[in-house]
Design goal:
This protein is mostly helical. It has a single domain, classed as de novo design (two linked rop proteins) (Up-down Bundle). The longest helix has 28 residues.
Length: about 120
């Protein structure tokens, strides 16, 4: 694996930044969303760096690929929730989160492809 720690991985660093941005965004939602959209968005966002870290620590390439795939799935879930949030709360700024999410998804796809041997 290319880095000495998952904490040095660009995807993980950006995913942690994304979590912080999702907190900023969801703090702007009405209280009624606390156990609905806020909960779902935070869980999906937190799942991304968590799965990157867990997969990295497994120290087995196939398991790492599996956990990175889970991270991509969580990113897709969050992407969907951002679309829903944008429709419900259009005055909130989602741009930074969307950019981070796109970067993270690209990094994860590249990493998985590399771990699979470029297939």
């Amino acid at each position: 694996m290319p880095a000495n720690s998952y904490k040095n991985l660009t995807a993980w660093i950006k995913a942690i930044e994304l979590v912080q941005e999702i907190y900023v965004i969801t703090d702007k939602f009405p209280k009624m969303e606390l156990y609905i959209l806020v909960n779902q968005m935070l869980r999906a966002a937190i799942s991304v760096p968590s799965n990157i870290a867990e997969g990295y620590r497994r120290n087995h390439r196939l398991e790492y690929i599996q956990f990175l795939s889970i991270a991509i799935a969580s990113a897709a879930e969050l992407e969907t929730q951002l679309i829903i949030a944008k429709n419900r709360y259009p005055l909130v700024d989602y741009q930074k989160a969307e950019i981070l999410l796109d970067e993270i998804q690209r990094l994860l796809y590249v990493t998985i492809r590399s771990l699979k041997g470029g297939k």
